[in-house]
Design brief:
This protein has four helices and seven strands, in the order E-H-E-H-H-E-H-E-E-E-E. The protein is α+β, with helices and mostly antiparallel strands and 190 residues long.
């Protein structure tokens, strides 16, 4: 397994400048690669599409959506019943049923949104990840600790974000087993 340092860059020109800086620092084409990282959810890792069933930030949204549906449905059912009591019973019954349906729908949307938040990377797991931001990734195979320090320094100077370390299979100048939903191991200070 190769030791790898990787960072994300917002634009291709930023990544190109970082690639040039890494070449100037002595890293050749067989030790440096770049690739585009799709946005979270766009990696087709899950059988029906997406990356997972849900991420760390949405694991409670199903429960809050159900609660919102119940509150909204009951509230609008009560309003429809009040309309029925004030006037035409036939029209009121239709209003009560329609109101319950609309209230449940709106309540479920509000509840689902209330239960969603940005995921906490510290609580992320393979089943409930916190997605990496999209951008151009640059990965560098490093052998020595001094090389790691150099790569991290160059990436920081060039504006690299989300700098991480990993171990992986490096073949023919490429990081072949990169997993976009794996929990990153951030580089704090090397």
């Amino acid at each position: 397994m190769a030791k790898i340092i990787a960072a994300r860059f917002e634009t291709q020109p930023e990544a190109d400048r970082a690639l040039d800086a890494l070449r100037c620092a002595g890293f050749d084409g067989q030790d440096v690669t770049s690739f585009y990282l799709n946005p979270p959810g766009a990696h087709a890792q899950y059988p029906i599409g997406g990356d997972t069933h849900h991420d760390e930030g949405t694991k409670h949204s199903g429960k809050t959506a159900a609660a919102g549906a119940a509150v909204g449905g009951v509230t609008w059912l009560a309003l429809g019943t009040a309309v029925a009591a004030a006037g035409d019973v036939g029209l009121g019954a239709i209003a009560a049923v329609a109101g319950a349906g609309v209230g449940a729908y709106v309540g479920s949307l509000a509840g689902g949104l209330t239960g969603s938040h940005d995921g906490n990377p510290a609580k992320a797991t393979k089943e409930e990840p916190v997605g990496r931001n999209a951008g151009v990734m640059i990965a560098v195979r490093v052998d020595a600790d001094g090389a790691q320090n150099t790569v991290v320094g160059v990436m920081r100077e060039q504006g690299g974000a989300d700098i991480e370390r990993a171990e992986g299979e490096w073949r023919d100048g490429e990081w072949v087993d990169f997993d976009p939903v794996a929990k990153p191991q951030p580089v704090d200070r090397i």
